[in-house]
Write a structure and sequence with these properties.
homodimer, 200 residues, Helicase, Ruva Protein, domain 3, 2 domains, five-stranded mixed sheet, binds zinc ion, Rcmb_RecR (chains A, B), metal-binding (chains A, B), DNA damage (chains A, B), DNA_Rcmb_RecR (chains A, B), DNA recombination (chains A, B)
Chain lengths: 200, 200
C-alpha cells in the first residue's frame, strides 16, 4: 500500500469498478475528492447507495425506474402511438438525447443470444406482444444494434409486429455496421432515426 | 431529464464531481454500474462514505490518515533520518510509488501563497520546525513543485533546515519547469529523486 491511510487505499480500489478507470485515474479521483470536494463526494456516496438500492426496472417498458412505472411511461404528453424498441437503457438514453423522438420505449435488456441463454422470454417479448395487443401502438421502431445478434433480434421483432398488425420500422442506414448505438455521434444517430425505414 | 428514473439522473449529476468526468462519461458510468456491477457500486458507495467521514490528517506528517498517526509515520521500518517535504498528499503518493524512498514525509497541504492566505502557519511550518528540533532527521528532501510559489516555499524550507542544522536537498533538475509532480511520468520522477541536490 502506497498511502498512509488504509481507508483511502480501499477507496482507490473501489473506484476501479467505474468503466475506463485504471489505477492512476482512481488515485487522482480519490485524492481530488478528499482534498477538494468532500461535499461532492458525500453526495455521490449517498446517491450511489440510493440508486443501487432503489432503481429497478419499469414493469411496462423494462427501462430503469424506481417506481412501478417509469417517468417516460407515466408521461401522458408523449405519443402513445409510437413505440421504440432498444436493447439497453443506454441506447434508450442515446435516442432520447440525440433525436426529437417523444414516443414510448421498450427495453429488451439484451439481444437474442441463445448461447448466452437469452431468448424471447428473457427479452420480455411476451410483455411486448401484450403491449402491441393493446391496440394503441401504430408504429414500432426497431432500434436494435446493427450486429448479427441485433439483426436476428430485429427479425423476430418484425414478426411480432406483423402478428399484431402493427407497422414496424428500422433506423435508416447510416448506422455503421458492427457499431454500437451508444458510441455513435448524435448527428449520425439523429439522421438515422429521422430516416428510419419500413420493415418488410 | 433524459432518463425514466429521477434517481438515475441524480446519480449522473453527482458523478460529475469526479475530476475529468463530463456529462457523457457520467452517464456511461451510471448505466454501467446499474446494469452490470451493482455489487461494485454498493462497495464504492460504502467506501466513499466511510473515507469522507473518517479520513483526516495525520497529526505528525499531515498526510491523509484515519488514525491519529498515519501508517507511514507509525511504520518503524522506515528510515527515521530522512524527511521528504511535499505540497500535497498526491505528491506524497507519486514519490512513494515512483521511487525507492522509504523515509518519512511531511505534507504542507499547500504552498506559500500570501494572496490565498497561505503562509507558514497554514503550511504547518511550526510543526515541521518542532519535528526537525527532535534531532532525528538528518536530511530534509524538499519536493515542492518547480513553480514560482513552490520555489518560494522551498526557499523558506531551506531556511528552516539551516536554523535546525539539518541538511536540505532538492529534487534534481529534470522536473520540467512549471510542471506538477502529480503528472510527471514515473521514470522522470524517479530520476529526479535519485539525483536530488544539496540546497545551498
Ligand atoms: Zn417505463
Ligand atoms: Zn503521518
Amino acid at each position: 500500500m502506497s498511502t498512509g491511510s488504509p481507508l483511502l487505499a480501499d477507496l482507490i480500489e473501489a473506484l476501479r469498478c467505474l468503466p475506463g478507470v485504471g489505477a492512476k485515474t482512481a488515485q487522482r479521483m480519490a485524492f481530488h475528492m478528499l482534498e477538494r470536494d468532500r461535499p461532492g463526494a458525500r453526495r455521490l456516496a449517498e446517491r450511489l447507495a440510493v440508486a443501487v438500492e432503489k432503481v429497478g426496472n419499469c414493469r411496462r417498458c423494462r427501462g430503469f425506474s424506481e417506481q412501478e412505472v417509469c417517468s417516460f411511461c407515466a408521461n401522458a404528453s408523449r405519443d402513445k402511438h409510437l413505440l421504440c424498441v432498444v436493447e439497453t437503457p443506454v441506447d434508450q438514453l442515446a435516442i432520447e438525447q440525440a433525436t426529437g423522438y417523444r414516443g414510448h420505449y421498450f427495453v429488451l435488456l439484451g439481444r437474442l443470444s441463445p448461447l448466452d441463454g437469452l431468448g424471447p422470454k428473457e427479452l420480455g417479448l411476451d410483455l411486448l406482444a401484450a403491449r402491441l395487443a393493446e391496440g394503441e401502438i401504430e408504429e414500432m421502431i426497431v432500434a436494435t444494434n446493427p450486429t448479427v445478434e441485433g439483426e436476428a433480434t430485429a427479425h423476430m421483432l418484425s414478426q411480432l409486429a406483423r402478428a399484431a398488425d402493427v407497422r414496424a420500422s428500422r433506423l435508416a442506414h447510416g448506422v455503421p455496421l458492427g457499431g454500437e448505438l451508444e458510441f455513435i455521434d448524435r448527428g449520425t444517430l439523429a439522421h438515422a432515426f429521422g430516416g428510419r425505414q419500413s420493415l418488410l
